């Protein structure tokens, strides 16, 4: 930095100049004229530099100062130094503000900076999507004029911000938002809005799940309780009645057992880690065993069961999960097809993929039900499904298993004609796929 201007030096210089001019004046016998000319020249020199400064500051708007020596050079350099420092400070400040805004933009929440009269200072992009605020258009607008929901106005008025507020988004009815307000800086507030739609949906799914499970268990339990209440030491049923009661109780117990088994399977699949595709699954052997089990289940209904299996087609995956998927689809076809039906199970290679399908000529399913079949506890016909001992979880398990094996359940069905349930396992899971080599030229 330049040294401070020395008053003594400046005045001494001026005094010496005047002495010199006086001497020249005395020699030339015109002292007064010489002093006047020098004073006017000095004044003009100062005015010239004042105009230079005015031009530099107001018209040129250049950063570098006019070239000058001495007193004015010193002043120009001082202003130049202050301007540079000011620019650097402003740049730093801009960087700080930009970093804050970039940080707030990167957050998965809507952020609004407010004054204590609820006027908007700044908001991020997400505030536009979730709450419908626009920056800079809404800068200075009061938030309570833009979000008019009575609960929100009440929340602002009560000023009890230790608890968040849940509201439907003012711009999208499908979104549930959580509003949090906290003091920030000097007489400012920060409004953070979080999209909790998914959280709410999950909570609802959990509640529905608990309600469904309780409902499914309560029905057989009520039946058992009913029988047990009328059977005590004094009122033992006769043999015929006992036989009937025994059969019903056994059925209901089996139903509860099936439900608990399916629930355990589902939770085991959900809890297990990602599938490591390194275990070989001998699907042909698995389907052979399933064919024997299906024949046993089929004894009452006497369907024609045809298994068309490629004996060499093995895959990688989780044996127990795939067994559960194959079994659910085959047993469903037997359960829901009327007596004497025709069921064809196929496991075949299709190019480099493996395709499993179960086709039946059963009652079929109406289109409006098809897309909901894989929902937990969804049944087309509650009464019929209960009679067949269904839990409503079978296809939910199949869907889960298949998504873990990079596949998807396809359902084609025509009421009165039959249904087809199939899925395709991708090439990376199919064993024996030789990589194509390019032929040498
Ligand atoms: P459930 O344990 O009740 O069988 P699923 O999830 O396995 O539950 O099946 C859901 C519903 O899909 C069943 O209640 C039934 O109405 C229908 N469904 C499944 N497979 C067939 C099929 N092959 N033919 C007709 N309807 C079927």
From TrEMBL:
Show the catalytic activity.
Answer: ATP + protein L-histidine = ADP + protein N-phospho-L-histidine
Q: Where are the transmembrane segments?
A: 15-45
Q: What class of enzyme is it?
A: transferase
- Histidine kinase domain location is 212-429
Signal sequence segment: none
Q: Which Pfam families match?
A: HATPase_c, HisKA, PhoR
Protein keywords: ATP-binding, Cell membrane, Kinase, Membrane, Nucleotide-binding, Phosphate transport, Phosphoprotein, Transferase, Transmembrane, Transmembrane helix, Transport, Two-component regulatory system
EC number(s) per entry: 2.7.13.3
Subcellular localization, as worded in the UniProt entry:
Cell membrane
Report the principal subcellular site: membrane
Question: What is an example of a GO molecular function annotated in this UniProt entry?
Answer: phosphoprotein phosphatase activity
Q: Which SMART domains match?
A: HATPase_c (SM00387), HisKA (SM00388), PAS (SM00091)
Set out the biological process GO terms recorded for this chain's protein.
cellular response to phosphate starvation; phosphate ion transport
The UniProt entry, under PANTHER family, shows: PHOSPHATE REGULON SENSOR PROTEIN PHOR (PTHR45453)
Q: What does this protein do?
A: Member of the two-component regulatory system PhoR/PhoB involved in the phosphate regulon genes expression. PhoR may function as a membrane-associated protein kinase that phosphorylates PhoB in response to environmental signals.
Name of this protein = Phosphate regulon sensor protein PhoR
Taxonomic source organism? Rheinheimera nanhaiensis E407-8
């Amino acid at each position: 930095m330049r040294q401070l201007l020395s008053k003594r030096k400046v005045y001494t210089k001026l005094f010496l100049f005047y002495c010199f001019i006086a001497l020249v004046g005395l020699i030339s016998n015109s002292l007064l004229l010489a002093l006047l000319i020098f004073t006017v020249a000095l004044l003009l020199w100062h005015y010239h530099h004042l105009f230079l400064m005015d031009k530099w500051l107001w018209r040129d708007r250049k950063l570098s100062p006019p070239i000058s020596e001495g007193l004015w050079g010193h002043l120009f350099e001082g202003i130049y130094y202050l301007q540079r420092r000011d620019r650097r400070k402003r740049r730093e400040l801009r960087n700080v503000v930009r970093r804050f805004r970039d940080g707030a933009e990167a957050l998965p929440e809507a952020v609004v900076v407010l004054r204590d009269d609820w006027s908007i200072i700044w908001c991020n992009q997400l505030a536009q999507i979730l709450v419908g605020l626009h920056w800079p258009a809404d800068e200075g607008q009061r938030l309570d004029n833009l979000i008019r929901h009575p609960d929100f106005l009440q929340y602002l008025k009560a000023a009890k911000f230790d608890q968040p507020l849940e509201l439907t988004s003012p711009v999208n009815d499908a979104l549930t938002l959580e509003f949090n307000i906290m003091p920030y800086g000097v007489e400012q507030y920060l409004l953070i809005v979080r999209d909790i739609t998914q959280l709410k949906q999950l909570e609802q799914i959990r509640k529905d799940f608990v309600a469904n499970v309780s409902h499914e268990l309560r029905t057989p339990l009520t039946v058992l309780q009913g029988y047990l209440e009328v059977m005590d030491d004094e009122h033992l049923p006769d043999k015929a009645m006992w036989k009937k009661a025994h059969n019903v109780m056994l059925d209901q117990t089996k139903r509860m057992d099936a439900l608990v088994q399916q629930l355990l399977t589902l939770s085991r699949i959900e809890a297990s880690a990602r599938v490591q595709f390194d275990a070989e699954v001998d699907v042909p052997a698995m389907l052979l065993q399933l064919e024997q089990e299906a024949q046993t289940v089929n004894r009452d209904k006497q369907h024609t069961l045809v298994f068309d299996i490629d004996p060499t087609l093995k895959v990688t995956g989780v044996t127990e999960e795939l067994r559960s998927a194959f079994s659910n689809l085959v047993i469903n076809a037997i359960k829901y097809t009327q007596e004497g039906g025709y069921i064809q199970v196929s496991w075949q290679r299709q190019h480099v993929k493996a395709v499993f399908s179960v086709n039946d000529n059963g009652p079929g399913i109406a289109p409006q039900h098809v897309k909901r079949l894989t929902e937990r506890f969804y049944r087309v016909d509650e009464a019929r499904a209960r009679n067949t001992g269904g839990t409503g979880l079978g296809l939910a398990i199949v869907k889960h298993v298949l998504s873990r094996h990079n596949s998807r359940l396809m359902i084609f069905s025509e009421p009165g004609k039959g249904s087809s349930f199939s899925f395709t396992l991708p090439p990376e899971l199919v064993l024996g796929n030789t990589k194509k080599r390019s032929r040498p030229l």
